[in-house]
Amino acid sequence: MNFPSRETVERLRREYPVGCRIVLDEMDDPYTKIPVGAQATCQGVDDAGNILCAWDCGSGLSIAFGADRCHKVRTDDEAKITLEWYGKRQPKENARCPRCGCRMDGASSRHALSRRAGIMICDEDGMREALEDAGIMERMQLTQWAAIAGPECGEGPWEG
Ligand SMILES: [Zn+2]
């Protein structure tokens, strides 16, 4: 067994705060059914350095310290998968805009459907995306959205 030092565990906890989104690179288990590229929400890091995961596919397998490899969501394609996942779980009312983080009053369906992923955003951001597509505003990266950047910075799990 390969046990990490306390410093390593603390570094892992800073790097993988609860709520951040994780992408699987490699799992050292021939029987695992979790494919490379699958995503999970981080549940924490245990004292042995294992990253506790809630995989979108329903599995609860941990990323084993020293054996498995993963990274945090860092590309727009990866962020889009996360946003689609959040979109399916977005609260029907008073949801938070995943782009700017503001509260969207009333029914989510009355706000704007994002042009980037299947998720509702606030009316102002709907307008901004239209301006981006028209070339009038510079396009915002999906990794900069509040729903992606917040959890990655340790603000906790994204709550719709
Ligand atoms: Zn917004």
> What is the residue-mean pLDDT, rounded to a whole number?
96
Main sheet record: 4 strands, antiparallel
The Rg value, from CA coordinates, equals 17 Å
Q: What general outline do the C-alpha atoms trace?
A: elongated
- Helical stretch count? 4
Measure the end-to-end span: 39 Å
Bound molecules: zinc ion
Number of strands: 6
Question: Widest sheet: strand order?
Answer: 3-2-1-4
Fill in the keyword field for this structure.
160 residues, alpha+beta, SH3 type barrels, 4-stranded antiparallel sheet, 4 helices, 6 strands, binds zinc ion
Please describe what this structure looks like:
The structure is a single chain. The protein has 160 residues and is an alpha+beta fold. It folds into two domains: 6-72, SH3 Domains (SH3 type barrels, Roll); 76-152, no CATH class. The chain is built from four helices and six strands, in the order αββββαββαα. It has helices at 6-15, 76-88, 123-133, 146-152, and strands at 21-26, 39-45, 51-55, 69-72, 112-113, 120-121. The chain has a four-stranded antiparallel β-sheet. Strands 5-6 form a two-stranded antiparallel sheet. A hairpin with a 6-residue loop joins strand 5 (112-113) and strand 6 (120-121). The radius of gyration is 17 Å and the shape is elongated. It starts with 5 loop residues before the first helix and ends in an 8-residue tail after the last helix. Zinc ion (ZN) binds at residues 97, 99-100, 102, 121-122, 124-125. Zinc ion binds at residues 97, 99-100, 102, 121-122, 124-125.
